[in-house]
Fold this sequence. Notes:
- Chain A has helices at about 105-110, 130-135, 170-185, 195-210, 215-230, 275-290, 355-365; strands spanning about 5, 15-20, 30, 35-40, 45-50, 55-60, 65-70, 70-75, 100, 125, 185-195, 235-240, 245, 250-260, 260-265, 305-310, 325-330, 340-345.
- Chain A is an alpha+beta fold.
- In chain A, strands 11-18-17-16-14-15 form a six-stranded mixed beta sheet, sandwiched between helices.
- In chain A, helix 1 (about 105-110) packs parallel to helix 2.
- Chain A starts with a strand and ends in a 5-residue tail after the last helix.
- In chain A, about 35% of the residues are buried.
- The interface between A and B is medium-sized, with 19 and 20 residues.
Amino acid sequence: MAHALHAPRVNNNDDIVQVIAFRVGVGDFVKQGDIVLDVETDKAIVEVAAEKEGYVLKLMCEIDDKVAVGSILLWQGESADEPVPEIEVATVASGGGNARPTAKARALLKELSLDASVIPAAGDRLTLADVESYMAAHGIKRRDHTPAVAVSAQESLPDVPGELRDLNAEERGMLITVSWHRDHAAATYLEVEYDPKAWEDHAAAYASANKLMLSPLLPLLAYRLVQLVKASPRLNATVVNGKRFEYQPVNLGFTVQAGETLYLTVVRDAASLETKQFIENLGEVQRHALQRKLSRDETTGATIAFSSMARWNVSRHIPILPPYCSLMIAHAAPKGSGRAVLGASYDHRVLSGFDVARLLMELAKPPV
Amino acid sequence: MNLDRDAIKAAVRAKVIELAKNLGMDASDIGDDDIIPATGYVDSAAILELVVWYEDAYQMPLKQEEINIDNLGSINSMTEFVLKRKGG
């Protein structure tokens, strides 16, 4: 049954709180006590924690919304596809007009110092479209726009007409990843070609012995990577504030394409697992990705990563490094070519080309 | 959810054919006892999709160790496994 998280009372005298940040998105799994959003009153900013564990089903307000204490901030459920009761959040008008502005409209009004009361609304709420229509009719133009995620200091809107849309949770995640890769990592790439037969024979023998449904080729390659990194801890590191940070666990990131969404799933402390357990754990997070039921632990904290595009028959792909991850292996095996490629995107602040070339040459051979 | 043996077989077969079609393969001649991974009609990612669909269609969460050739290797074994788990 869906569970509502209500706006807390922060101060005795404040009946209204303003939502200033969401820490979670729809589909995220949160544990009891996880911080899910921040609210602000005139006197304080307060973190709001989940009262129960469960999947986030729906956010009932937007950033900058002012909501009454006790109103519903979000719904959680035991499964990600649980239905949400049809109840609207009690947002509070901030403008002086008859129609209450939506959060997006309010942001634009604020940006342009416009008075909501002078702008006609097409419906019950004053929407972004209403404000933009008013702007067009009165020759008012936006000068610039600051996106929610700081991808650069300032970006101007293109001169071509169009509409700004919010990114969904996955798109925001990808933007953060790409921005970290661009702004922090000294990312470069190298690759080796190898004869795939030895690995294919190794995987086929393992599958037969264990009666596996799914080919273990990629899991076994990923596990070999984990073992090689375990043997050379300097590969399992990043740079923070000008210092080398060597991770204790080896958390393996493994890309999974679920529909149109690319997830970086994570098997934690992979180096402590035996082969069979590792393959089972990886299979489990892959299924969770397809079911859209990944927990936070299954999507965060990768210290190294593995990605294959063999399914798509590409000859090469150069992965983006996730935040604080210095090494991502890229596997490709063009059909019918009789060859395969192991590449690596790596952070040159942490690893040298020699480190990575040696690793790839070892990885190209299955364990004896 | 229809737990009739023939209905389960037909549904599993239809799903395999659909997944194979997504990969540009025609699996319409797949036999009920053919080992699905060995047919070459579907790759590992598609088999994973098949397993996730199967769990959802028959409301039957699987343990990772249950996902093996003995239980789910063919259309017939997938059918029998549902019936066994559901007491059919």
